[in-house]
Write a structure and sequence with these properties.
With about 260 residues, the chain is of the alpha/beta class. About 40% of the residues lie in helices and about 20% in strands. Helix 2 packs across helix 8 and helix 2 packs antiparallel against helix 9.
């Protein structure tokens, strides 16, 4: 074989070897994680007991969608009954919930409070009968009135269960159920948060109803906070900062006013 043939063969071998090295390198790169091929962020699931057709449900969704947009985290909102909300967040089946009272974490240690309040509410006994009067909550024990509270509203349950026997106190699923029972004369009072009661009265079903009024407030006004499942504790201060920023911009109040007008 001539020297020229040997040189040509050697060149081809070096060329093939380069191809093999390049193919191996490409295969190795394909096996490594790559930022361009990262999985999309999983949606963060927050739950509420307020449908998106209600005053409360409308402004809550708009507010949290904006907050999570600023965090760069996709948000998914699920609707479920109040009592189930607690169970789902306690178990970590969902990531958090829109609002609860400050002391909520004492009975739900697997949830972390986001330390920026988003709303103030007052708990009250609501009535439709204009003849009913009550000076103090303790005086309820001396009446024969029948009452209801919404399941999962723990302050109502605690406040009433020590004063009223089970035969005259029961729980219901929604605030609309409570208003229906008041208007139908099936109960004398309904223990509920003023925000939820307002939300029910703004619904088409009760449009024009003016007879429902607060008979007696329970305690002072209470601020409400978001709560997250404990594995998301690192997100809590970031969400708090965003909510504080939105409050300073007047956005939360604007969202509430816009929901009232719709």
């Amino acid at each position: 074989m001539s020297s020229s043939h040997i040189r040509a063969s050697g060149g081809r071998l070096r060329k093939y070897a380069s191809y093999f090295r390049l193919a191996g390198l490409l295969l190795l790169l394909a096996m490594l994680p790559h930022p361009l091929r990262a999985e999309p962020l999983r949606s963060f699931v927050m739950v509420t007991d307020q449908p998106d057709t209600t005053y409360e449900g409308k402004w809550q969704r708009v507010a949290y969608q904006e907050a999570f947009k600023r965090l760069g985290v996709p948000l998914e909102v699920e609707l479920m009954p109040t009592l189930r909300v607690s169970a789902m967040v306690d178990s970590g089946a969902v990531d958090g919930q829109f609002m609860r009272v400050p002391a909520y974490a004492e009975t739900h240690p697997d949830q972390v409070r986001v330390d920026e309040s988003i709303y103030e509410v007052r708990f009250a006994l609501w009535v439709s009968n204009p003849a009913l009067t009550l000076s103090r909550l303790e005086d309820l024990a001396a009446t024969n009135w029948i009452g209801v509270y919404r399941r999962g509203v723990e302050l109502c349950e605690r406040s009433l269960s020590s004063l009223v026997p089970p035969t005259r106190l029961s729980s219901i699923a929604t605030e609309n159920d409570g208003v229906r029972m008041l208007l139908g004369g099936r109960v004398d009072y309904f223990c509920e948060i003023d925000a939820a009661l307002k939300s029910a009265l703004y619904s088409p079903e009760f449009k024009g109803v003016t007879s429902v009024r607060p008979l007696l407030t329970i305690g002072d006004r209470v601020v409400l906070y978001p709560y997250l499942y404990k594995t998301h504790a690192d997100l809590a201060p970031r969400l708090a900062a965003v909510l504080k920023e939105m409050k300073a911009e007047g956005l939360l109040e604007r969202y509430r006013q816009e929901a009232l007008e719709k």
